[in-house]
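Q: Convert this sequence to structure tokens.
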Amino acid sequence: MAKIYYDKDANLDLLKDRKIGVIGFGSQGHAHALNLKQSGCDVMVGELRDSEPWRNAQEAGLKVATAEEVAKASDIMVMLVPDQLHRQVYHASIEKGLDGGNMLMFAHGFNIHYGQIIPPPDVDVTMIAPKCPGHMLRRLYEEGSSAPALVAIHQDATGKAKEIALAYAKGIGCTKAGVLETTFAEETETDLFGEQVVLCGGISALVKAAFETLVDAGYQPEIAYFECLHELKLIIDLIYQGGLSYMRYSVSDTAEYGDYTRGPRVIDDLVREEMWQILSEIQDGTFAREWILENQAGRPSFNLMRRMEAEHEIEEVGKKLREMMPWLRG
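A:
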């Protein structure tokens, strides 16, 4: 079982005399910076000068400077720009500002685990990864609540890396819910696997295949959309609330019987073999190399797939049907 740390295990005073530089003011960056400031920490945001995020950070009452300036001024630097920009930003702006005893922190282990960033040996390298989107992290903090997070230590140069990382986790509010101990390798590999096999790749492919099956069989696309995509939220919400057993308790006995008897025919041994292959490609770096090269080449395949997927019939049908449901626009 994972070791879990709570408020009592974290000392916010460890951040009292440390300057924290949050690099990036996007989804996670804005939540980290604002939560830390509200916790009484000395926070500075690193962004592109005069960009929209720069102005947003200023309007939120935060100190803002370039990433290079923030790196020189900070004791703890938190990399919260998109993963594909980490290596570039690190080498251009962060690396030369690192001093011995500083901490370099991440919210995802990809670039450390796959060697895109190799920090000097005299700095702490840690990770605090909240298990929710940034806007939720901020909202929960403001409500006096919290989201869980992960903590990992890649490099402990000072002997205090875990204690400081946990203090940071307390500063953004996560120790109220609990912070689970992991490693950079475990976080990175399980995160990629979950995204590819279930959360993004698996669900998207399953929904499209089911939709196409019904349409090809002569059923109306609108009905196929409702049955294979729209109602997915109902099921996910039930699972999210109480696990698979609560979902099965909540649906009809007919649906539950179909779950037990037909689900394993869809996710069969061939699918499981492919899952093992995907996991192997994550573990040995095949996927990482592919994605890194794709970015270096200007993302030609990625952009083509994005355009093709946006033109799929399920997107066109869904757009029309969602116009009937104004409450979805919130």
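Residues 68 and 93 are 4 Å apart (CA to CA).
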